[in-house]
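Good morning C.,

I know you're traveling, so I'll keep this short. The sequence:
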Amino acid sequence: MRVLAAYSDAKFGEDQVALYTAQRDFLLEQKKVNDLMFAKGEAAKTDMLETQAKLDVAEAILLEAQDNLQNARATLAGIVGVEITNLDSLRDDFSLMPLVRGDLNEWKSIADKNSPDLAAAKLAVEIAEQEIAKSRAGYAPRVDLNASFSNGKSETIATQKQENRVRSVGFQVVIPLYSGGSAGAVSTQAVAQKDRAKSDLDATRIKVHNELQKQLNAVRVGAVKIEALQRSVASAQTLVEATKQSIKGGIRINLDLLNAQQQLVTTKRDLAQARYTYLAAYLRLKVAAGVASYEDMQTVAGFFVAK
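The C-alpha cells, ready to paste straight into the viewer:
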C-alpha cells in the first residue's frame, strides 16, 4: 500500500503538471490573440488584463505543481530504492470493472477468517487463557523428578587413580501451604490480562469492520464519481469549443472562455484524482480483509500503460 500510495501521488503530480502546463500554454496563446485584437482595435484592454491575471496565477500554480511532483518522486524513490524517471500512466480507455463483489456482511466474514490483525488479537486471548491455567496450577501439589550424576577423579601420594561415580534418581513432592498470596495475585493478574486481551480483540474487530465499510463505500462511490466526472470532462470540453465560437459571433466574451478553460482543467484534475482513489480503495479493502494477493496488484497494474 505504501508503494501504491507513493506511486499514485507521483503520477497524480505528473498529471497536474501536464494539466497546468496545458492551461498555461492556452493562456499564453490567448494573450497573443488578445494583444493582436487590441492592436487592431477589435478588443478591449480589459480582455488583455483578464488574460494576464489568469496567466500569472497559472504560472504560480504550475511552479507549485512541479515542486510537489519532485517531492512525490523523491518519496517514491526512497521507498523503492531507485531513482524514478518514467511512470506508467492510467489508460486512456480507463474502464470500470466490477472489482468488488458482495455486501458488507460478506466482507466482514472474510475479514474474521483472514485478517492478520484479528488473528493476532485472537491469539492474545488464547495466550491469556493459558496464563490463567498456569497461574492456577500454583495451588496444586507438584511432583518433581530429580536425577543427578557425578564423576570425580582424585590422586594423592598414598592413593593413585581414585575415581568416584555417583548416580541418583528421586521424586520430590511439593505441597504448597502458603505462598504469601503470590499465587492468588498472579492468578488475578492473569484474569485481568485476559479481560484486556478480549477488549483489545473487540476493539480490533470494530476497527477492521469500520475500515471495511469505509473502503467498500469508497470503491462504490468512486465508481459512480468517475462516471460522473467523465461526462463532466466531455461537457467541459464541449463548452470550451462552443465558447470559442460564441466569441467569434460576439455572443460571449474573453472571460467566458477563460472560465470555461479553467473548469475543464479542474474537472480533468478531479477525474484523475478519483481514479487513483478508486484503485487505492480497492486494494485497501483487500488488505483490511486480509486477502490481498499478487493477483490484486496485477489487476491494479492493468489500469496503467507505458507511454
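Safe travels,
E.
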